[in-house]
Structures are given as structure tokens and as C-alpha cells.
Design brief:
The protein is an all-alpha fold and 153 residues long. The protein has one domain. It contains 8 helices and no strands.
């Protein structure tokens, strides 16, 4: 009798352990699949960002700009960066201004001065950065936009 009871308890425990192991294995498989998808997504994002950086670099070269120039020209004041972003959004969303930038490869200073009431010196000082930010917003650079615009503001 005692042996039978212990045998049944061991079978019940064994069955419970087997079920728990099955659940753990299932959870591990789901976690592994989830991590695999996350890694694949991150890898795709990194590859896409690299491709966009290469394309944006070529676009900058058309305007005689480079990333090293932009790094050295980055405005220090947050207010200036905010103003530049506002101007770049204006340039990218106003067809005539965008056309002037893309075709003549220069900013329409007078239009920007009138629209934003900024001194000409502000535009001259930040010209390269204004052009680059405008090109970034105009072009198909969604990965770079999300990455850089978070750090800009």
C-alpha cells in the first residue's frame, strides 16, 4: 500500500514536471523566435541606415558638403538648432523654395529672411547646416531623419 501511494505520487510529480518542462520549452521557443525577429529587424534597420547614409553623402557632395563639414558647423545653441529645423521644414515643404535649393543649389535667402525674420548673418553662418537639414527632410532618408532629428532637438 505504502509503495503504491509513493509510486502514484512520483507518477503525478513526474507528469507535472513533464508539463512544466513542456511549458518552459514552449516559452523558450517563443522567446527565441521573438529575439530572432527583433535581431532581424535591427539588422535590416542598420543596413537600411547605412544605405541611406551613403546616398545622403552623395547628395551632400552635389552641394560641395560633407559630414565632416557639418560636424564642424553644428550650431551650439539649442535655439539656433530649433530655428534651423523650422527653416529646413519650410524649405522642404514649400515647392518654390525647394526647387530653388535643388536646381540652383543655394538657399533663397530673401524668402527665408522675410518668412522667419532672421538676420542675413544667421543664414550665412548656418548655410551649410541649413542646406543639409533641408536635403535630409526632402530626401527619402527616413532612418537618418528619425535618428538625427531626435538628437538635434
Amino acid at each position: 500500500m505504502f509503495i503504491e501511494q509513493n509510486y502514484r505520487k512520483n507518477q503525478d510529480s513526474s507528469s507535472t514536471l513533464s508539463q512544466n518542462n513542456g511549458k518552459i520549452c514552449s516559452n523558450l521557443k517563443e522567446t527565441a523566435k521573438s529575439k530572432e525577429k527583433e535581431l532581424a529587424s535591427k539588422s535590416y534597420s542598420v543596413i537600411k541606415r547605412k544605405d541611406e547614409i551613403a546616398a545622403f553623402s552623395k547628395e551632400l557632395l552635389r552641394f560641395n558638403l560633407s559630414f565632416s563639414v557639418l560636424v564642424s558647423q553644428k550650431p551650439k545653441k539649442k535655439d539656433d538648432r530649433d530655428q534651423i529645423l523650422a527653416i529646413a521644414k519650410f524649405v522642404s515643404s514649400t515647392p518654390s523654395v525647394k526647387e530653388t535649393l535643388l536646381n540652383a543649389k543655394k538657399l533663397p535667402d530673401k524668402t527665408i529672411i522675410e518668412e522667419f525674420n532672421v538676420p542675413n548673418k544667421f543664414i550665412r553662418t548656418n548655410k551649410f547646416y541649413l542646406i543639409a537639414m533641408s536635403l535630409l527632410l526632402i530626401g527619402p532618408y527616413s532612418e537618418i531623419q528619425s535618428y538625427l532629428l531626435e538628437g538635434l532637438v
